[in-house]
Amino acid sequence: MKRIQRGPVRGISFKLQEDERERKDQYVPEVSALNVADSETGTLEVDQETKDLLKSLGFDSLSVNVVNVTQQQVAERPKRFGDRLPRS
Fold first, then answer.
1. 67 CB contacts (<8 Å, ≥6 apart)?
2. What is the spatial distance between Cα 67 and Cα 30, in angstroms, rounded to a whole number?
3. Residues with Cβ within 8 Å of residue 60, at least 6 apart in sequence
4. d(CA 1, CA 5)
5. Fewer CB atoms near the end CB (10 Å): N or C, the chain?
6. Are residues 52 and 77 in contact, defined by beta-carbon separation less than 8 angstroms?
7. Is the pTM here over 0.70, yes or no?
C-alpha cells in the first residue's frame, strides 16, 4: 500500500490504484485549519497572498493577522565526485 501512495505502480490493478486515489481525495480533517475558536488570539496568521485568496473565496469575515514571509536559507548540498573541478 505504501508504494501505491507514492504514485502508479506497475503490476497492480488500476481499480486498486483508483480506489486508493479516491480514498485520499475524500479525506476530511477532524479539525478545520480555519477554526480559530481554539487559538490563543482568535486570528489566523497568513501572508498577504493567502489573505487575498480567502477574500476572493468569500472568507473575508475571518479575522486574519498578516505576517511577512521570510525566505528560508537553503543549505548548500555536499560536493559529489562529479562536481569537482578538473585538475590542471
1. 45, 46, 47
2. 26
3. 54
4. 6
5. C
6. no
7. no
